[in-house]
Amino acid sequence: MYADPPWDYGGKMQYDKTTIKAENVGFEKNIFISAANFKYPTVKLKQLMELDVKSIAADDCILFMWTTGPQMANSIKLGEAWGFEYKTVAFVWDKQIHNPGRYTLSQTEFVLAFKRGKFPTPRGARNVRQLVSLKRGKHSEKPEEIIDGITRMFPEQKKIELFARKNFIGWDNWGLEIPESKIEILSQHEIDKK
Question: Distance of CA 168 to CAs 9, 55, 84, 180, Å?
Answer without folding.
Answer: 28, 22, 24, 10
